[in-house]
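Batch manifest line 213
LIGAND: 3-phosphoglyceric acid
JOB: complex structure
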Amino acid sequence: MDLMEKIYDAGIVPVVVIENEEDAVDTARALLAGGITFMEITFRTACAAEAIAKVAKNVPEMTVGAGTILNVRQAESAVAAGAQFIVSPGFDEDTVIWCQERGIPVCPGCVTPTEIMRAIHCGLTVVKFFPANIYGGMKAIKALSGVFGGIRFLPTGGVNAENLGDFAAEKCIVAIGGSWVCTKADIREHNYEKITELSREAVEKIHAARVHS
Ligand code: 3PG
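JOB STATUS: finished
ARTIFACT:
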């Protein structure tokens, strides 16, 4: 099965900021215990590559990717560490092509018709929509989807337990993303039971939203 289809099955890709690489494995296990099988570890901290490596090595049931990838150099470092997919906040063609040449699934951020057309030109069918709350949320995604029927979106930024149902129910949404299930503070304070509980709640809400759509 294609990785993007697996992301659809997972329904959610938490955006995870690891400040101390020693927290990475327990955080991945806490997400898994709540039914979340994908995580995006952001390249916003110095230990991001090491955190990805630890999860890839110690938690094989978790599909770990790298987020906030801004250029080819970071993509190289993430993939070398074991990242199974690459997410970018925006569209960087060099990074997209570098990933495609190596068979690494890549999901760049695209919020305008022009950016989406560049993604289509590269043969992509899934793009991130970030920051979703600022760029018009589901209303904007639906309008774009009317034109770009072959594209599915991964909205992040302002998506949370309260509004995820608005997104998850739509066919053009491949999965939702966000940091609320696994905040920096909860990771820092090792609130792993809370992370598991919020994960479970999110997964249940996504499934319920899809069933009723
Ligand atoms: C991202 O990187 O996708 C966002 O920072 C996540 O946004 P959130 O913190 O509003 O969930």
